Request: fold
Amino acid sequence: NAGVTQTPKFQVLKTGQSMTLQCAQDMNHEYMSWYRQDPGMGLRLIHYSVGAGITDQGEVPNGYNVSRSTTEDFPLRLLSAAPSQTSVYFCASSYGQGTNQPQHFGDGTRLSIL
Amino acid sequence: AQKVTQAQTEISVVEKEDVTLDCVYETRDTTYYLFWYKQPPSGELVFLIRRNSFDEQNEISGRYSWNFQKSTSSFNFTITASQVVDSAVYFCALSERAAGNKLTFGGGTRVLVKP
Reply:
């Protein structure tokens, strides 16, 4: 019962470096998304995908890229890391669209940008 | 635009006391869904309960209960007879049917249950 798997769990980057946060789910969910969690602000949506080959921007997309080549995987790319991107990142997935199905979250990636 | 407000940033109680978490939301959609998630100190997000906008029946599930009132746009959550393991941050979240599965979260309420 893997559910949503995120790697790595922790990462420290220097300003300007690039990296990819990995997210994989084994529940055949169409919908996948990335959120960032900052103190006192809850979670904010970065990017989301309603199916393979389809992605769209969320509330805070600047500085991040995504792609969805398969149903299972939804990587998040930081092209040039900035200290403002220090945060905890959560990947989530769920069935369908516009439904009451709860999103299943990965365990998060704690990212620090120096 | 959808918005969720959790006015309580932190609540501290003694074990066995009841805890009620407030959640107020804003939406223009007539069909929407409300959720409560728990984030224990280990950091993962755990789904607790959900409610559809067209179902105002309030329910109890074990020590959890919720009070959904469309008239006041509130979706409050109560933990009865709190336990130390209930110590966590609790998030209220909203998704609109027209907006797909995009969740808007409140800022969270930290609950500390003391033995």
